[in-house]
Amino acid sequence: MIENKQVNNTNQQLGEPIEVKQAMKSDSPAEINSQESGSEVTEQMTAHNVPQEPELTEENGVAAAETIQADTAALADLTQQLELVKTQLEDRSNQYMRIAADFENYRKRTSKEKEEMETQMKRNTIMELLPVVDNFERARAHLKPQTEGEMTIHKSYQGVYKQLVDCLKRLGVSPMRPEGQEFDPNLHEAVMREPTNEHQEGTVLEELVRGYFLGDRVLRHAMVKVAAPKEDTPTQQEDELSQENT
Hints:
Elements: H1 2-14, H2 18-25, H3 29-49, H4 58-142, H5 148-170, E1 173-175, E2 188-195, E3 204-209, E4 212-214, E5 217-220, E6 222-228, H6 236-245
Parallel strand pairs: 2-6
Antiparallel strand pairs: 1-4, 3-6, 4-5
Helix pairs in contact: 4-5
């Protein structure tokens, strides 16, 4: 009895009741229940993870065939729509290119017509001024001032003539210099022919009315005198023969 009391006292001092030890030695019902529940969860998870194969029936096959047929028809419809859109896009692109080309041609044509109209207006205006220039040149060629007053008048109208010629130069007008050149019907207008042996036939001997260029185009043809072959005079022998025949 005394020994049992000592053992019990020792156990109480260590803070381990006897009932706890006994419970630890024996299997706990809670542990058993937890093990059982864990096995059940594992079995349920295993059952859910395993896929079940669908049953192949005649109805499923018909439904699958109908689905494939519908998808094929939809794909064909989309393909047809895509081809139609491509055709429309190509037509619009060609139409745009034709419109752009027509507009570019119109722009070039109108620009060219505008330039030609401006050139023609300038040409007409200058043609109205050329007779004035001709009169100044005739006056300078024929008038010979003798007195100081005549010289003053001569210088004054020559100043006006020079100013007029400078204006024409700024507009692109330049005079022709045909003397000594070969006659060119595109530039010259022959109004006289002079027989001569000093120059080759067709050579321009004198410019009677001055011709002008407007840029690289002929503004007015030059009226010129052209060299012609000199007629041969009858020789003395020919004269004698003619006298004998008479």
